[in-house]
Amino acid sequence: MKRQTPQEYVHSLGQVARKAAAVVALSSGKLRNDALLAAAVGIREARAELQAANKKDVAAGEGAGLAGAMIDRLRLTDAGIEAMSAGLEQVAGQPDPVGMTICEWDRPNGLHIEKRRVPIGVIGIIFESRPNVTADAAGLCLKAGNACILRGGKEARNSNLAIAGVLQRTIASAGLPGEAVTVIDRTDRAVVRAMARAEGLIDVIIPRGGEQLIRAVTEAATIPVIKHYAGNCHVYVDAAADLDMAEAICMNAKCQRPGVCNAMETLLVDAAVAEEFLPRISAKLMAAGVELRGCQRSRRIVGEMVAATEDDWTREYLDLILAVRVVDSLEDAIEHINKYSSAHTEAIVTDNPAAAERFAAAVDSSSVMVNASTRFADGGEYGLGAEVGISTDKLHARGPMGAEDLTTYKWIVTGSGQVRR
C-alpha cells in the first residue's frame, strides 16, 4: 500500500478527529468527567506498560547523547505517572467550562444578550521531550469539549504512543469516542508543516518546545497559533529584600529543576545589597554546581564568575548555568527584563509593597511573582490541575493554559419576535 503523503496523513487524522470533536462538544460535563476519571485509573494501572515503553526512549536518548536536562524531561518515574493521574482527577473535579455564561444583559428592546463558552473544536498540539504532556493536553482538551491531535518529539515516541493507547481505551470505555485523542505516529517534520496548514480540520495549533520549533510552526501556519516561547525567567533582588528569603527563592528557582521552562535563568541584584548578597548566594549556587556568568560589576564582587556576553541575557539555558547582573534600581531591573525576557515568568524579592506593585504593573510577562519562586508558574501550582502549556502570547490566552483557555465563546441572542427598524 502506498504510504500517505504528510498532507494526506494529517487530513485523514483530521477528518476522524472532527467527527469525534462533534460528539465530545455535545456531551455532558458528567460524561467527560467520567472519561477523565477512567483515564486516571487506566494510567495508574498501566504503570509497568508505560515505563517499559519509556525505558526504550530513555535508552535511545542516552545513546544519542541527549543532555541530562532533556533526559530528565523524558523520564517517566513513578511520581511522574502518579502526577499524570492526579492531574486528570483534578481536571475532572473542576467546574465545567462548556456552556458557562461569561456575561449577559437585557437590551431596551427586550433582547437578551448572552456570551457563552463553547469548545474550540480540534486542537493540534506540538511538543518536545515530556511524555506527560500527552496526558495533560488530552485531559484538558477533553474537559473543554475538544478533540486533540498531538505530535510529540521523536525522542518520546514510544512513551507518547503508550500513554495515548491507555487514554483512547479508557475514554472509549466511558462512552466517548477514543478518537478524541490522536497521537501522530510519524517523526518527519513535514507532518508538523501539514498540521500547521490543516485549515478546516485543525482549529488552532499550540507549539511548545524550543524557539526554533515555535518559529517554524508560526511561519508555516495558515491556522491560528498560540505560542509558548522559551522561559528566560528572571529573579530581581530588590534593595528592600529579606536576603534570607532571597537566598531560598534563588536556590529553588535555579536548582530544584534547572531543565524546566520556569527555572530562573538570570539573577538581577540591586546595587544597594549586591556587596552583601552576591558573595553568599554565589557560594551556594556554585556549591550546587551552577556556572555563573556575570556582568563586570558582579565579577568585581565575585571573581569566580565567567564574563557574561550579550547573548547570555537572552538565553534559556535549561541547565545549571546562570547569568548575573547588578542593577542600580528597580527601574533598571524592569528595563532589563522587558528588553531581554521571553515574557514567561519574573520574580521580585522585596519587603517594599510599593516596589512590588510597581514591578507587577510594569513587567510585561505572563506571570509575575512577588516573594515567591518562579518555579510556581505552572498549571498544577495555579490550581488548574494540568496545563497545555504556558502561553507567552497576549491574545486569547496568556500564562498557564487550563481547560477554560481551551474554549472560545459564542453570542446567544434571545428575543420575542423583535425585528430591526
What do you see in this structure?
With 421 residues, the protein is an alpha/beta fold. It folds into 2 domains: 6-226 and 401-414, Aldehyde Dehydrogenase, Chain A, domain 1 (3-Layer(aba) Sandwich), CATH 3.40.605.10; 233-376, Aldehyde Dehydrogenase, Chain A, domain 2, CATH 3.40.309. Helix content is 43%, strand content 19%. The protein is built from 14 helices and 16 strands. The chain has helices at 6-25, 29-45, 47-63, 68-74, 78-92, 132-143, 157-173, 189-196, 211-220, 243-255, 271-287, 296-301, 330-340, 353-362, and strands spanning 101-106, 112-119, 122-127, 147-151, 181-183, 204-208, 233-237, 264-270, 291-294, 306-307, 321-327, 345-349, 367-370, 390-391, 399-400, 407-414. It has a 7-stranded parallel beta sheet, with helices on both faces. A 4-stranded parallel beta sheet has the order 5-4-3-6, with helices on both faces. It is globular and about 70 Å long. The termini are far apart. The mean pLDDT is 94.
Summarize the entry for a quick read.
It is built from 14 helices and 16 strands. By secondary structure, the protein is α/β, with parallel strands linked by helices. It has 2 domains: 6-226 and 401-414, 3-Layer(aba) Sandwich (Aldehyde Dehydrogenase, Chain A, domain 1); 233-376, Aldehyde Dehydrogenase, Chain A, domain 2 (3-Layer(aba) Sandwich), CATH 3.40.309.10.
Fraction of residues in H or I helices: 40-55%
Globally, the shape reads globular
Number of domains: 2
For the sheet with most strands, the description reads:
7 strands, parallel
What is the CATH H-level superfamily of the largest domain?
Answer: Aldehyde Dehydrogenase, Chain A, domain 1
If classified by CATH, what would the architecture of the largest domain be?
A: 3-Layer(aba) Sandwich
Q: What is the residue-averaged pLDDT?
A: 94
Q: Could you give the count of β-strands?
A: 16
Question: How would you spell out the order of helices and strands?
Answer: HHHHHEEEHEHEHEHEHEHEHEEHEHEEEE
CATH class category of the largest domain: Alpha Beta
Structural class: alpha/beta
Q: Uncertain runs with pLDDT below 50, 5 residues or more?
A: none
Number of helices: 14
Q: Report the oligomer.
A: single chain
The share of residues in extended strands comes to: 15-25%
The radius of gyration computed from the alpha-carbon positions, rounded to a whole number of angstroms, is 23 Å
